[in-house]
Structure formats: structure tokens, C-alpha cells
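Long-time lurker. I teach an intro course on protein structure, and each term I like to show students one example going from raw sequence to a predicted 3D structure in C-alpha cell notation. This year I'd like something fresh instead of my usual example. Would anyone be willing to generate the C-alpha cells for the chain below so I can use it in lecture? Attribution to the forum is fine with me.
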Amino acid sequence: MVQLNPFKKFIRVAAAVALLIMGSYFYLNTLNENVTTQYAENKEVVLPDASEIILNADSEISYSEKKWDKERNVTLEGEAFFKVAKGKRFTVSTDDGVVAVLGTQFNVENRKGFFEVTCFEGLVSVTFNNIETKLPAGTSFLAINGKIKETEKPDETIPSWMHQESSFKSIPLKYVLDEFQRQHNIKVKTENIDINKLFTGTFSNTNTDLALQSISVPSQIKFKLEGNKVLFYAESTP
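-- Reply from a regular --
Happy to contribute to a lecture. Here you go:
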């Protein structure tokens, strides 16, 4: 058996330690901060540049605090309101598109089959299917199931969910019921109703009974609430 002399052993150990240190350095510098919300929960996040994010229920953001000075980018799943401090380019990346700004206030909702961006202050750039759209204050961009839809001018200066209401204008009932489930943490089931029927209206994010009435009456459907489950069904269903 050939034995390594002590110096060669030291070189091997030193090389292994150097690799470990380098690996740890790169790992720590690529590690992202993650913030999530559960059903019926909102959360506020202050970024390293003092930009503010308020997450709606059932949402998640991630960003790199180590690289923030070089790349102001936030990855979003769900919905959040952004109040961006002026400075370098700020981007919000979602599965459906990318939103870019320099300093403004805007809301992004990215749910399965639903992508909406509303600009409340300044100017927002939305890239969807490789096509860029500029949104000045008081305008929105909406795509449902990959198709761009026309939108009306927002009525308020902040999203309705930030004062504990959920508002919709000509939105398929499916997404209204999904939002009810998120805001009230109540499992939704449907029976014999058209979930693609368009809904216009508002429901409370804090008062469950009022929210159920606000959805069922204009939709001409009934509901049965049992514990943390609710069934929406057609009026003709026995």
C-alpha cells in the first residue's frame, strides 16, 4: 500500500474545504426569501429598497435579498398589491407574464387561468405572450384562459380586497367562487350551475353570511352551508 505523505494529505483536505466554502457562498447568494399566505390571510412585506408588498390570501412571493441591488425582481403566485420605491427597474414575474415598472402602485393577480394587472399610479409594462402592453394609471390588463379580455376603468385607488371586499365585473362565476373559498377558508362545491356565467358584484371578505347572499342572489342560485363546506346549486335542484 502506498501512503500519502502529510503534505499531500493537507492539500487534499484544503481543496475539499475550499470547495465546501465556495459551494456555501454560491448557495447563500442564490437563496431566495419566500413569503406565503394561507386562506383568509393577508400579509405585508417590506423589501430591501423600502418597496412594499401586500399579499392577498393563498399567495406566495419570492425574491433574492442578496442580489436585490442588482436585480429588483419578485416572483409571484397568487395576488399582491405593490407600492414600488423609485429607482432601478422593478419586475414581477408570474407564470403568465412579466410586469415591469420604475416606481408606481399596481396590483397583480395570477391564478390558474386568470391573469390581471391594474395600475393605480404611474406606468406599468405588461408582457404577455411576448407582447408588451403599457398601462397608465387607472387602466387594467386581463387575460382569462390565455385570451385577453376588455376591462373597465377601476373604480378605486386601491384594490377592493385591501378594504376586505372582493369585486368583479363580468368575470366567470368559477373565479368568484374560487375567491370566496380563499377569503373565507370554506370548501366550495357546485351542483347543476353554470360556473362560466358572468358575474358582476362584490362580496365581503369578513362576513360569510353576507358574502354568500351577495353571490347567490344576483346569480339566481342557492347555497347550503355546513361547517367549513358550502354547496352552491341551481334553484331547480331538489
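Some talking points for your students: Helices lie at 6-30, 173-184, 208-219. The two ends are 87 Å apart (CA to CA).
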